[in-house]
């Protein structure tokens, strides 16, 4: 058990299924008071009823106030988990402005807005925990999904900025960066996901386990797929070789599109 989780007020966005539901279940099992958020009210309510939590459906960008009220005035842990993914091939293909705008709003700005609403109280108290569900795409990239890859880089950059700016004032930040996870979002990655993600996909519960282990060890970067650390190291030390390898996957994907 992570000591700070017992009786803590926890918010999990995008928790109507997948990783979010697994995080909500795990926090509830560890004794936290949990708010389950999802844009789909029915799914949020179903998970909340299952685990004895409180459903606060709605846009993840604007639920901090309602979630705080539901928890009796205090949020201790905020899991910015809601996200969107599209297979949108990018340059050379018709530009899908909608997927870019929605990806930016959900995958990055929802985190920024939540932190803006949470930080004054957390800094005054000298403690708070912000959990960002990023993706290995934020450390690496993802073929066939430029809006996803770029905005997940943004989500990681924002989490890093929060940590380096406020860790001496009691803020703990964790960035979860899995590869494939067996969720509805994995299906949304289409044929690119079939090639890159599905072969090593894990269960959402494995992601929750990795987060709790990372919280116990007070680690920023949470890697449910440990091999991502090696890929990240290779990307940093020999970017041309790494890009060549990714281009090989790109060409393989183009053959099956």
The share of residues in extended strands comes to: 5-15%
Total domains: 1
Q: Would you report the number of β strands? A: 7
The Rg value, from CA coordinates, equals 18 Å
The rounded distance between the terminal residues' Cα atoms is 46 Å
Helix content: 40-55%
CATH architecture: 3-Layer(aba) Sandwich
Model regions low in confidence, pLDDT < 50 over at least 5 residues: none
**Strand/helix succession:** EHEHEHEHEHHEHHHEHH
Overall geometry comes to globular
Structural class: alpha/beta
What does it look like?
- With about 260 residues, this protein is of the alpha/beta class.
- It has one domain (about 5-255): NAD(P)-binding Rossmann-like Domain (Rossmann fold, 3-Layer(aba) Sandwich).
- Helices cover about 55% and strands about 10% of the residues.
- It is built from eleven helices and seven strands.
- The chain has helices at about 20-30, 40-50, 65-70, 95-125, 135-140, 145-165, 185-190, 190-195, 205-215, 225-235, 240-255; strands spanning about 10, 35, 55, 75-80, 130-135, 170-175, 220.
- Strands 3-2-1-4-5-6-7 form a seven-stranded parallel sheet, with helices on both faces.
- Helix 4 runs parallel beside helix 6, helix 8 (about 190-195) crosses helix 11 (about 240-255) and helix 10 (about 225-235) packs across helix 11.
- The longest helix is centred in the middle third of the chain and has 29 residues, at about 95-125.
- It is globular and about 55 Å long.
């Amino acid at each position: 058990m992570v000591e700070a989780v017992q009786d803590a007020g926890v918010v999990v966005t995008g928790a109507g299924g997948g990783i979010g539901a697994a995080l909500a279940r795990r926090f509830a099992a560890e004794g936290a008071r949990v708010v389950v958020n999802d844009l789909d009210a029915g799914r949020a309510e179903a998970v909340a009823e299952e685990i004895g939590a409180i459903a606060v459906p709605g846009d993840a960008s604007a639920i901090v106030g309602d979630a705080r009220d539901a928890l009796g005035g205090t949020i201790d842990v905020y899991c910015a988990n809601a996200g969107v993914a599209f297979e949108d091939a990018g340059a050379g293909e018709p530009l899908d402005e909608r997927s870019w705008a929605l990806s930016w709003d959900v995958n990055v700005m929802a985190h920024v807005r939540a932190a803006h609403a949470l930080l004054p109280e957390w800094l005054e108290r000298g403690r708070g925990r912000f959990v960002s569900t990023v993706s290995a795409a934020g450390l690496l990239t993802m073929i066939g999904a430029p809006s996803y890859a770029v905005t997940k880089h943004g989500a990681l950059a924002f989490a890093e900025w929060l940590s380096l700016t406020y860790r001496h004032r009691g803020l703990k930040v964790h960035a979860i960066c899995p590869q494939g996870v067996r969720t509805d979002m994995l299906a949304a990655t289409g044929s690119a996901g079939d090639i890159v993600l599905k072969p090593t996909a894990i269960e959402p519960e494995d992601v929750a386990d990795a987060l709790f282990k990372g919280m116990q060890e007070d680690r920023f970067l949470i890697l449910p797929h440990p091999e991502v650390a090696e890929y990240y190291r290779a990307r940093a030390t020999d970017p041309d070789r790494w890009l060549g390898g990714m281009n090989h996957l790109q060409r393989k994907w183009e053959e099956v599109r």
